[in-house]
# Entry
Amino acid sequence: MRGIFIYLNQKQRLLPLGLALVFFISLSGCKKTTQEPEGPLPILGAVHIDENGDTTYYAIPDYAFVDQDSNLIVPDTFAGKIYVADFFFTTCPTICPIMKKEMVRVYDAFLDEPRVRLLSHSIDPAHDSVAVLKRYATALGIQTPKWHMVTGDKDEIYTQARAYMVSALDDPTAPGGIVHSGAFILIDGNRHVRGFYDGTKTEEVDELMADIKRLLDE
Amino acid sequence: MNNKSFSWKTIAYIFWPLLILGGLVVFRFTYSGANTGEGAGLYQVHCANCHGNKGEGFKQLYPPLAGAALAKGDPTVLACLIKNGANTPLSIGDTTYTQPMPGNPALSVVQITAIVNYVRGSWGNDAPPIRATVVENAIKSCP
# Structure
């Protein structure tokens, strides 16, 4: 190294150092600074405060769907538990396979935690009958009480998607004919929305799993 | 005067190495380890969501392509699967895959050939590449 430096004047000798500095500064800009969150998770959605000053938080409205074992799934199914909801369809070739791979990670992580459940709604109920969902669930190797895959009236499911503040729309130009959100929604034992995560992104699903642990400790 | 011309020289000394370095960094992050061939790109778009980035498949939903006889074997079968999908159960070893596979009717012969050749030559699959005419003839007489 010294041999090369002999041919450079003083300012030029500083050049490699300056370059190295610029390079490392540019690298450090890519690093994500993470801060350990503290306290309870926020409750999301519209808040209503009445004249007495009592606060009412947005809650998931009533619903009734049928899962892969023909069980009726209603809000009481998740009483005293927390659950992760999503919307998918079994023949979706785009984001659903990635969402399901990510949901399987959540399933595996909380397999032995009875207070955590998963709820996947089919947005293509015309095709995704109970039998089709059963076949899909069997291929995934999941247990029904832990992970309910539900079907029902299409309008009710689309309405329910909006109730979870996510979108699902028919679109003949989209692969599979439906465009929909890849969101995972975290719901607590009081039907309150506690978090949204992109179910196609590993980092966000990691965040979801950390938030589930926080919620379990509340 | 002398001082001024020297400072321009210094700027030039800094500018060009920085440009080259920047170019290298961009190149590194854009092409890191990726196969930039057409087949790899098409596989990523049309196949990888289900069959995985390394052809590993997923549970009993999506069959693996790495090491699969179907992927390495008769290319006309693979070409027809890519074009038209499949609606009948598929058995690999002890595992039966019942999830239907969607077809890709919009893919051209050249694109299907690129995917077939990528699958045949990746993740330990060592089947030789095939010509587009093979695919062209195959998809005319798919089952």
In short: The radius of gyration of chain A is 24 Å.
